[in-house]
Design brief:
Helix content is about 25%, strand content about 15%. By secondary structure, it is an alpha+beta fold. The longest helix is centred in the first third of the chain and has 16 residues.
Amino acid sequence: MIVPLIKGLALTIKRFLNPNTCVTMQYPDERPILAPRFRGLPELQIGKDGREKCVACGLCARVCPSQCISVEGAEDETNRRYPKVYELDAFRCIFCGFCEEACPVRAIILRDTFELATYDNKDVFDKEKLLDLTRKRNLPR
C-alpha cells in the first residue's frame, strides 16, 4: 500500500522538477496543430466565376443527422439554381461530414474552423457568413 504511493509521489516530483515535460498548451497563445483530416465548421465554396457553387439541391439538409442545415432554392435569369436561403445552426452541428460527402458539386467543405465562441446571440450561420469564411481564406479558386 505504501509502495504505490511512493512511486506516484516520485513521478509527481520528477515531472514537477523537469520543465521540459510540460504537456499543457497555453491556448489561445499557442495554437493546436490540427490533423489534416480535422472536421471543423462547414464552409460554402465559391466557384471560379465568383458565384457560390451550391445548386440548392438540398441533399446536405436531407442527410444531416442533427438537422442543422436548411436550404431554400431559387433560379436566376440563366435558370441556374442557387440557394436563396442557406442556414447552418452551428450549435446543433455535430461535424460528421455527411453534408460534404452528399454534395454533388463539392459546395460545402468542412474546414479547420473550430473557434465558435461569440459575444452575441447570432448562433445561426446564414449563406453570407458561410461564404465569408471562404473569402477570408483567400484560397485559389
